[in-house]
Amino acid sequence: MHPQLTIGPFTLHTYGVVLALAFLAGLWATSRQAKRQGLEAQRVTDMAIWVLIAGLVGAKLLLFGLDWRFYVAHPRELVSLLRSGGVFYGGLVAGLLVAWWYARRYHLPAWRTADALAPGVILGQAIGRFGCLSAGCCWGRPANVPWAITFRDAYAARTIGTPLDTPLHPSQLYESAVAFLIFAFLLWLAPRKRFHGQVVLAYVALYSAARFVLEFWRGDPDRGTWFGGELSTSQVVALVLLLAVAVLFPRVRRQQVGSGGPGTPAAAA
After folding, report:
1. Which of the residues 30, 71, 138, 170 could staple to 132 if both were Cys, CB 3.0 to 4.6 A apart?
2. Domain coverage including residue 52
């Protein structure tokens, strides 16, 4: 765990460095997928930048929304939002809305563009969780397993509240490993898809299912409580997204496969 990197006279936050690497890797994957989808790579890359900005803002807004009473009572703590990655689902929803607006604004085929974006997004998530690990955020529950990790950096405890000297589930690594597996599957699926939209819908379904399960190993506070504290906010959002995919998947597939598959004009939407 190294929340700060010292290079000569400069001190950098490791989370920000890893986030930048995750963003660059996501852009690289998106550009490659856009070319394979027959899309204008530069236009889709520009779209990805706007989606990233929206994602960062949306993640922090949802974090604020989950604990707004605390921030209203302690306005100085608003600065801590800048150090936190926020809640991913807030970023996902905001990113999807901006992607939808951008696609309409520049007349991009919506489902095909979303398919090009999905692998880059999950790759960014996979790498970004290493930033969470280095910063000490998004920690897991106390654990008595051989692979448990123990944080000892006082800076992380002071700025983020990371529990020190306690063996914890490496929830950041759990999610990173799952995200890399989803990324590999999406790369396999992309050239084999039966209809445009299949890749992004698979991404949303797989990540939501994985996140629902992984939440049981998360130990950081302010996760929101639903149904008497049985579920976190992220788990409720995951269920909503899974339901949305269950509704959309057969509808989108029927509209396109019935018209001849991804290569047909009707399926290019």
Report:
1. 138
2. 4-268
**Is-contact 62 89, C-beta < 8 A?**
yes
Give the number of domains in the chain.
Answer: 1
Looking at residue 196, what DSSP letter applies?
Answer: T
CA distance 149 to 207: 24
Q: Tokens 């190993």 map to which residue?
A: 217
Q: Does pTM top 0.70 for this prediction?
A: yes
